[in-house]
Each structure stands twice: as C-alpha cells, then as structure tokens.
Specification:
Blueprint: H1 10-17, E1 35-43, H2 48-66, H3 74-94, H4 96-100, E2 112-120, H5 126-139, H6 144-165
Antiparallel strand pairs: 1-2
Length: 180
C-alpha cells in the first residue's frame, strides 16, 4: 500500500536541512512549534478498533524492523509514535488529498466531512520533524519498506482518530483562542 507522504531519502533530507543527520529527543515536541488548526476534512469511516489494530501493527513492525520494543526503550518508542503522528498531521495540513486518498476504499465508506482540530508542527519545523523521524528509524535499522509500513500504520491511526474523535489521540482539546 502506498503512503500519501512523499518519502525522501536520507541524503535528500540531510541536504535540504544542510546538516548531518540528527535524531530527536523523546517528547521534545515544543521545538516543533506545534499549533492547532481547525479545518474540515472528508474522512473515511475508520473505527476505533481499526485505529487500535494500526497502533498494534506499528508496535509489531517497529519491533520486527528495529529490534526495539516499548519495554526496551519506552521514551524512544513513545517519541516515535508522537513524532510520526505529528509528521502525518503536518502532511495532512499541507495536502490532505494526497495523504487520505490511499484510504479511499470500499471498506472505508462512507466518507464524511468532519470538523477537526489538528495539532501540527509549524510549517518551518515540519521538514525537520520528518527528517528526525526518518533518521531515527534508519539509525534503528529500519529499511525503506519498514518505514513505509510504519508510516502507513500511523496514517491509518491518525485518519481514524480524526474521524472518530476529531483530533489526534494524544492531543488535548484546545481552547478556541489557541487556533491559528
């Protein structure tokens, strides 16, 4: 299955940033200058159970690809999930059609417009977050195929979360004065 997020090679990302690869500090999302965005998206009918299956799939494939589990390094594992969700939300904000189109299957009908509150990195930090996630997965030994599979699992989870609760699972419901 093709993920609607353009995967750049490590070289492309490093060249774009003009620096050597660096991984991220777990739970350091403040450096991403995250902001809330209220928008209407046409979302698939993904259930809470499908979101749960996708997150279990993320855990399984991360363990299989990298040999690391949530028990081995809970901070790294949680940081990867959060950062990857923010990467997907930034991609949705930039081009929702490209990210959500692969989910347009008969099994995911009906497609319904839904008002959502999306937490995403700032436009300036979105490429840096993408690069940090990719660098970290590569450092852990994930192949391009593994990375695509992990991104797909998180894309399903994010789309399902937006469809069911209108926000990312780790996101608090913001006050209306925090919208940008």
């Amino acid at each position: 299955m093709t993920v609607g997020i353009r995967l750049l090679s490590k070289f492309d990302l490093w060249q774009r940033r003009g620096m050597e690869p660096t991984s991220f500090e777990p739970f350091d999302i403040e450096s991403l200058n995250p902001t809330y965005h209220e928008l209407t998206l046409t979302l698939p009918a993904i259930t809470a159970e499908q979101v749960s299956v996708a997150m279990r799939g993320f855990s399984y494939h991360l363990t299989k690809a990298c040999g690391t589990t949530a028990l081995d390094s809970p901070e790294l594992f949680a940081g990867l999930i959060v950062r990857t969700m923010l990467m997907v939300s930034g991609s949705i904000l930039k081009d929702p059609e490209a990210v959500l189109k692969p989910l347009r299957t008969p099994e995911n009908r009906p497609w319904t417009p839904r008002r959502v509150t999306l937490l995403a990195p700032s436009a300036e930090e979105t490429p840096n977050n993408h690069a940090a996630v990719l660098d970290t997965l590569c450092e852990l030994g994930a192949s391009d195929e593994d990375i695509e599979r992990l991104f797909w699992m998180v894309t399903v989870a994010v789309a399902g979360s937006l469809a069911t609760i209108g926000r990312l699972p780790m996101q608090e419901v913001p006050s209306t004065d925090s919208y940008h």
